[in-house]
Amino acid sequence: MTALERTRTVAVVGTGTMGQGIAQVALLAGHRVLLHDAVPGFAEKAAVGVSARLDRLAEKGRLDAAEHEAALSRLIAAERVEDLADAGLVVEAVVEDLAAKQRLFADLEAVVADDCLLATNTSSLSVTAVAGALRLPGRLVGLHFFNPAPLLPLVEVVAGAASHPDAVTAAYDTAAAWGKSPVRCADTPGFVVNRIARPYYAEALRVYEERAADPATIDAVLRESGGFAMGPFALMDLIGQDVNEAVTRSVWEGFFHDPKFTPSLAQRRLVESGRLGRKSGHGWYPYDDGRAAGAAGGADAAAPHTAEPADAPRYIVVGGDLGPAQALVDLAVEAGIEVRPQEALRSMNRIELPDGTALWLADGTLGEGVQFDLALDYRAATRIAIAPSRGVTDAGLAHATGFFQALGKKVSVVREVPGLIVGRTVAMLVDLACDAVARDVASAADIDTAMRLGVNYPLGPLEWGDRISALWVREFLESMHEWYPTGRYAPSLALWRRGDVDEDVVSS
Asked: How far is CA 233 from CA 279, 317, 320, 435, in A?
């Protein structure tokens, strides 16, 4: 099998937002498309909705007149399952309920030909389980589109335990022929994106629960220092707190309550209160007609903490290698701050300010001085989070603040916690990605592609791990594990092995 021929019919069952989006993609790829829904009249309404979207594309010049007319002529509302008999591919996008999906595919199998490819768009259920009741389970695969399907390029092509390799290849090639960027993955909880993305929300929630920072500050730090397009709290509000928590809980239960995926009590309480995000008018932030009230999501209380201006130090003393933060030395020189190397500090890997206050990159420990957070790119970062230990004076904190401000950064002072914000988030993303590769969930290249295209990360987590070194990430998580000995931060065996490779390179 290869890509579905354009002369073959595509049926989409389930006519909600996702179903309509998938239908639009198949239509514009040149297929005849049948829309079907179990609720009478819904298929016809969906066809009207898809037609309206095609009309808007034509009005904006993104679809020429001939293509527009041809696409409309190929769109058909099918009121009965029997009307789908000539389909070469059926994509299911109904409610996330295993029994409902199994019943639907059993009904379809009684109607369509044996060479018809069947696909489920499930985001949380086992593809293997969906196919379990079929006479020919080998022809069912997962085709997980991301919403909105016409705009987002990523499609996870999921091989269930019984999926035939030819069926998986056909689904992959069809998604590629439709202009998508497909990635292959195994049938595990969360597939690629929903599995590996959990720490982006979980670590932000943990920092909030420990009262180290408020949501607006955490969001700002991850955007302006971590390089992420949207902060986790704003993103949870956009997705819907109930939906986001349900995915987290599904992955956690799918991995038999693995502590790396433990849900958040704070988010549970938010869901119980009915504050579901934009759709309810309030989540972590208040909203007005679905739009955030204020730049960060709601009045003054939603503004991130930003320190007042402070004087820059005349010089700094740099001891040892600052690792991922080494770029700060060049930035200091460019800012006119004298840099004084000092051999006595070489084992400390610190920056020392004139008053003796030490600055050190958050590494999963707690220590004396002021720790600062990891950044994707210290030159491009516009904000840095710093946290003083209990022994730091107000003057010392002001000097640390002034140092980063002199480098052109806004400074958010947060409460001291191991790993701060960006550091612990990135370390966990890298660890889960390494573990997924080792378990053959997906290739390293596909994982990085999925995370960049599916959730718009600035770097794939494996690429990010290579940039800062797997050894650094491993040692970071080892330190975190000492503070939180629950298993949540224990480095995976795969990360250990990658760290060993880095260690061998350094020692040679």
From this structure: 14, 37, 36, 26
Whether 480 is covered by a domain: the verdict is: no
Whole-number Å distance between alpha carbons of 247 and 166: 30
Q: What is the DSSP letter of 5?
A: P
- Counting every residue written for the chain, the total comes to 508
H/E/C letters for each residue in 258-321? CHHHCCCHHHHHHHHCCCCEHHHCECCCEEECCEEECCCCECHHHCCCCCCCCCCCCEEEEECC
Of these residues, 121, 124, 194, 412, which one is catalytic? 194
Of the residues 31, 36, 68, 144, which is catalytic?
Answer: 144
Domain final residue pick, 379, 413, 447: 413
Catalytic residue among 68, 121, 123, 224: 123
Single pTM value for the model:
0.93
For the question of residue 147 being annotated catalytic, the response is no
Walk along the chain (508 residues) and give the pLDDT tens digit of each residue: 599 999 999 999 999 999 999 999 999 999 999 999 999 999 999 999 999 999 999 999 999 999 999 999 999 999 999 999 999 999 999 999 999 999 999 999 999 999 999 999 999 899 999 999 899 999 999 999 999 999 999 999 999 999 999 999 999 999 999 999 999 999 999 999 999 999 999 999 999 999 999 999 999 999 999 999 999 999 999 999 999 999 999 999 999 999 999 999 999 999 999 999 999 999 999 998 656 654 444 434 479 999 999 999 999 999 888 999 999 999 999 999 999 877 655 557 899 999 999 999 999 999 899 999 999 999 999 999 999 999 999 999 999 999 999 999 999 999 999 999 999 999 999 999 999 999 999 999 999 999 999 999 999 999 999 999 999 999 999 999 999 999 999 999 999 999 877 665 555 5
Annotated catalytic residue within 92, 156, 463, 475: 156
Check: CB of residue 218 under 8 Å from CB of residue 421: yes
Residue 503 lies in a domain: no
Identify whether 308 is a catalytic site residue. no
- Examine the domain organization and report whether 41 and 178 are in the same domain: yes
Domain of 24 in residue numbering reads as: 9-187
Residue 473 lies in a domain: no
Q: Is 368 a catalytic residue?
A: no
Catalytic residue check, 121: no
